[in-house]
Amino acid sequence: MRLKPIGFVRNGVEERPDDWDEVVSRIVFERKYIPGLYRLDRFEHIWVIFGFHKARGWLPRVHPRRDPSIPEIGVFGSRSPTRPNKLGLTLVELVSVRKGVLTVKGLDAYDGTPVFDIKPSEDEIDW
Predict the structure, then answer these.
(1) What is the reported pTM?
(2) Residue 79, by phi and psi: left (phi above 0), alpha (psi -120 to 50) or beta?
(3) pLDDT in tens, 45-59
(4) CATH number for domain 7-124, candidates 3.40.1010.10, 2.40.30.70, 3.90.1150.10, 3.30.830.10
């Protein structure tokens, strides 16, 4: 399977911040995918599927939050980017949708991160 980015994260974050929850990011969409954003602004939260483009290798066990004082767990029981398939998934607050740019809050992704898909929060679907 080959994934193609639908957009890229722009937030100026180059190093891991203390609190990702406060990070405001823009997801800038590739032009051909902008029509797919129609009526997305009805939602307060969306899932963002992205690539850990800076992560190298993978580890079967990790210390959560890279904190050695926390006992190791299997990578699949963690949010670690050191995964076999470098995919991230985060539920974020959707702040705005304007001209092919989503502004979101709480996305734990660095500047330049490729975004592969977004989906609305299941709790907010009303059809």
Answers:
(1) 0.90
(2) alpha
(3) 999 999 998 888 898
(4) 2.40.30.70
